[in-house]
Amino acid sequence: QYDMAHLYLTFATLMHDTRQIPLALAYNKKALDMFSIIPYGTENRIVAANNMANNALEMQQLDLAQEYAEWADSLITRHRFMKKQKLTYLSILSNKGRVYSQQQKYAEADKTFRKLEAFMNQNFAPKESVKSETYVFLAQNFSRQGLIDSALFYYQKAKEYNPRNIKIHTDMAAIAAQREHFEQATWYIELNLCIFLNKKPDDIHYGMSQASDFSDDYIGYTNTMLLAKYYYEFAQQSKQHAAMERSIAYSMLSDTLVARHRDATLIGGNDTYLANQYHDLAHIGIRASYHAYQQTSDPKYLDYFVRFITQSTAFKLNAEVHQTALLTDNNKKASQQIQLLQKIRQTENELLALKRNLDPLRKKELQENLFQYRIQAFNLSFALQNNDLVSKDLFEPINYKAIQQQLNDTEALVAYFKTDAYLYAVFIRKNSVEISEKLAFEYFDRLLLEYYKSIKIASSKQKQLAQEMYSFLLSPFDEQMQGIDKLIVIPDGELSQIPFEAICRVQNGAVEFLIESVAVSYNYSVFLWLRSRSSPQSKEISFLGFAPVFAENTEIDAQNPMRYNETLRSNYGELRDGNNLKPLPYSEIEVLGIQNLFVLKGKRASVFTRKKANELTLKKQIQTGYAIVHIATHGYSSRKMPELSGLFLYQNIDLDTNVTNDGFVYLGEIFTLKPDADLVVLSACKTGTGQIVKGEGVLALPRAFIFAGVPNIIASLWKIHDEKTKDLMLDFYAQVLSGKSYADALREAKLQQIRNGELPMDWSGMILIGE
Question: Is 607 helix (H, G, I), strand (E, B) or coil?
Fold first, then answer.
């Protein structure tokens, strides 16, 4: 047991060193729990608690960091292990001080750092380099208070003990930037590159390094990103085009380095961490490219702009989908990585299911399996980081000409990039490219929310707000909008949660919905859209439908039709309890009606309703070659814990004793399916919504189906009505069977809803992702 606990502790350190901080925190917690019940485990318990404080600090979970830092301090003091574990004690005090400083408890931070300094002077030799870290923390505390002279004094002391301490140069660059000395800031970060690459300053400044020069992609990425940022600010300040060029060059180098790091740690726990950071890098590259293009009209800057804006969404998902396609004998390591990813997800899925069906022995076995898979993943990550094959297999950055080749004369693609202050966009047609930059600030965020609410509550202001949305999102491209009948939207951030179909514009003197003249489809990224575009449907059209209904003998109440008209296809409770769901009788009418449409056209169609619409049947049938899979059910979406999102099916334990087939298909389970479908329709509530992660997009059900290989998904942006959704879907399939594309068919179905007098809340929330 001691060896296992120590292995957890070691593995947590390795996770931290490869910047997989959430996993480091999880494994330190495992080690801490085990050392707490092992005799003579106190010293390692102190180490684990302190590591957790450090991990929490890096994740900006300050309350958690304070809790563990104070506990570690109490533990080491109570057992009088300060001198026995002197390096650990230094780390404990530094973590405590940093927490207090970031919480703006400056007096407590200063007291802690002084205690740290005194202990260090008493127990370490005068010239030991460990003192450098202590003085950096002291300097950071003064810097946060705006006491820059005191901060610089301690940075200088830190430099005396370790002139190669990169934190010193990074922090001093930040101070220089704060004082708007941006050229000086670039000089400090270039000193860091000199240390990493063992080069002279002139070699860095006049000869751009290559990605292959860096032995540590992540450290290289963080520093080159800072250089891109500071050179951009210097270019804005000095009006020197050469500085803007250098900003773009460092942005491109940083882009390559972070992509290599991402692909080597694809099965780690850094999903949102890296995506968030890449979004910040993309912001620098987009700004620099935009302003360089405005100044010079050089088309190369259009390519740079498109490169960053197209890679700034679905950062991790792009790589997962790409590497899944590399499952060949030519790239066995990529194949191992995806196979390990599948094993990890399958194990996590079973552990989730066991929460409702406790089996302690099986749970322990699964936890150990998961740990072993993580170890294999870690070892593979190191192998990949030193394998030239991986860098060659990175998908090439996308240029606008590649997009144009996939567009016809009446189509356009628009991709967005949203920051707190600006909204950037690129609008691409077959023979033209336009880019825009618009001030957004808080006003646009409020407008987004008001527009969304206006649809949900059928507000009288809906069309007015919809026109304001058009002004922000599409008016910069008014001229290019003329003559198009299809628009592909690649949203960013909160834009992924609003329907462009219901945006309004003035046409021929009248206000109309965008859907009235343009078919709209969406995708998580340009890369994924290009991928789906280059793989046209080859299957004979066929239909597979599921409607669990959630009642034995539910009939529609003819005396009170509104009873079911107002029924929503979502579970209201936080607990995913499939035994207490409202019946959905119209869902059965929906799938049977669609089946009848297919049969009348002589097409293959199968439907499973009520007890037959169970999880086991879905998992088997979805692999049997049906072109369209339609699931009409209750859905559950969790923003706080996306892995708990999923779809309800009928639970029939008499048919299947597999613990994962519990009547609820989790998000993670969908990742492990192998559907053989061209289109999956999720006719349930909020299936297109979820947690929004900067740089990654929406962590929702369609994401899992895309990874599993489905190129097209129809999902919902809010709670949908049982009967009205049935009507929309029947119209949609009638149009599909008449030969229309999915986008055109969905548009025609929505237009029919408009003609029927239905409000945007009833038709605009069902969107197509793909095509």
Answer: strand
Burial class of residue 510 in the structure, from the number of CB atoms within 10 Å of its CB (0-12 exposed, 13-18 middle, 19+ buried): exposed
- Virtual torsion, Cα 380, 386, 387, 391, nearest 10 deg: 110
19: left (phi over 0), alpha (psi -120 to 50) or beta: left
Q: How far apart are CA 661 and CA 665, in angstroms?
A: 8
- Report how far residue 398's alpha carbon sits from residue 713's, in angstroms, rounded to the nearest whole number: 23
d(CA 766, CA 751): 13
Query: What is the radius of gyration, based on Cα positions, of the chain?
Result: 28
Q: Which helix (H) or strand (E) holds 188?
A: helix 182-197
Q: Give, in order, the Cα–Cα distances in Å from 75 to each of 34, 51, 78, 81, 184.
A: 16, 14, 5, 9, 44
Read off φ and ψ for residue 13, nearest 5 degrees: -65, -40
List CB contacts of 620: < 8 A, sequence separation 6 or more: none
Cβ burial, residue 516 (10 Å; 0-12/13-18/19+): middle
Which residues are paired to 490 by β-bridges?
415
**Per-residue CA distances from 91 to 48, 50, 122, 446 (Å):** 12, 7, 16, 43
* CB neighbourhood size of 458 (10 A): 11
State the Cα torsion 407-410-415-421 to the nearest 10°.
160
Per-residue model confidence as pLDDT tens digits over 229-241? 999 999 999 999 9
Residue 750, H or E segment: helix 742-755
Residue pLDDT, tens place only, 31-71? 999 888 888 889 999 999 999 999 999 988 999 999 999 99
Eight-class DSSP state of 486? E
Closest CA to 50 of 12, 23, 83: 12
Chain centroid to CA 208: how far? 31
| 26, amino acid identity | A
Q: What is the mean pLDDT of residues 473-490?
A: 95
Q: Whole-model pTM?
A: 0.86
Residue 695 has φ and ψ, to the nearest 5°, of 90, -15
Residue 38, CB-side half-sphere exposure with 13 Å CA sphere = 18
Distance, CA of 306 to CA of 744 (rounded, Å): 27
Report whether pLDDT(701) > 70. yes
What would you measure as the largest C-alpha separation in the chain, in angstroms? 90
Query: Token pair of 267, please?
Result: 């099965």
How many C-beta atoms lie closer than 10 Å to residue 196's C-beta? 18
φ, ψ for residue 397 (rounded to 5)? -55, 145
Q: Are the C-beta atoms of 113 and 105 separated by less than 8 Å?
A: no
Distance of CA 478 to the CA centre of its chain: 31
